[in-house]
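Hello,

Our lab assistant flagged a job as stuck in the queue for most of the afternoon. It eventually completed. Since we weren't sure the result was trustworthy after the delay, we are filing this so someone can double-check. Below is the sequence as submitted and the structure that was eventually returned. Let us know if re-running is recommended.
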Amino acid sequence: MNLQQVSNQFGRRYRQLRKFLSRKEARTILDLIRTTAAEHIRPKNVPLPVGRDQVLAADLSHPVQFLIPDILPGKPLHLNWVMVPPGPGSGGHTTIFRIIRYLEAHGYINRVYFYNVYEADHQYYESIIRNFYDFHGYVGKMEREMEDAHAVIATAWATAYPVFNSRCRGKRFYFVQDYEPYFHSVGAISLMAENTYRMGFHAITAGKWLAQKLNAEFGMSADSFDFGCDTSTYCRSGNSIRSGLVFYARPEATRRGFELGLLAMEIFAARRPDIDLHFYGDKMGKLPFRFIDHGHISPAKLNEIYNQCYAGLSLSLTNVSLVPHEMLAAGCIPVVNDAVQNRIVLDNSFVRYASPYPRALADELEALVTNQAFDSLSQAAAASVHGTTWDHAGKTVDSIFRHSLANHKAS
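-- returned structure --
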């Protein structure tokens, strides 16, 4: 680099720094420094969420026909659930264990096998599913071969590979709660996730959108269950005073549209500074408008917040989350981005849909705050999900297993 090039580079960096300092954007500078440092220290070979040996062993051109043990009258069905070790409060694992508890209560024997590619402490995560998720059955490791079962169930794309490669007996199922290739930038990892839909498993999906998508695009056999709602936790309080809005804010989960939601809330805050804005999901730190930063909170506390709010902003760019149903149960009207998957899965006339740009979302939120008939709207919204229980979802999954296994036996 010659002297003129050095001078040009120095001048460019100086002008950038002066511009940042003139705006007094200390956080912007700090974020830039952190980003630059992270890029330098980030490992070039990031570990895959699935073992290389599992990907290499999975020959999708020759799907295996798995035998299943005999289904004996009066005897329980045995299920092997293969999952990554869960932390407390994981939404996906919460749904899985709700279904497992229902099946246990109706005579199934459930086993859990951890697919632990990062070699996390098995005993610690076993304690989590026993104490937090109330599971009391067998918990094993995928390092050893699974016992035979009537059904072997993958629960995330990385677990589909060891389920495909395992030689234990049992019909293969895939408990699909979202379209996971969308979780990754387009590339090798997203393709590895997509390939799991070509393994010949029978899909059981959370909501109809995924079942339709997997069947149409991959020819998968697929059934679905409708989302339940924990109405014992989320419910409308008749004496609550509503004075705010709530935003489900998850910056690290790109499918929840955090940046879009944040812009919508900024617009709303400028229009209505008298309305309290409640953020939960992750701690936000400083923002350019007034808000209440709840971060991670318990379901009981969340229900209290919902009962203080006219409406809640919950964005879903892939499959919908459980949040809109929980808001509805508390009489808090969910505003979501207008998208085919949200309309198919939610299927509730009290959900408000808005075009996915900031002003449209802010407009819809403001319309709810100024609605003169809000109290009656809130009561009707809560009533609309009153009978939407997880027992209904469990019953549907029970029926899917029994029908699919019976048909497999007949064939």
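-- support follow-up --
The delay was a queue issue, not a problem with the job. The result is valid. The longest strand covers residues 78-83. Residues 390-410 form the longest helix (21 residues).
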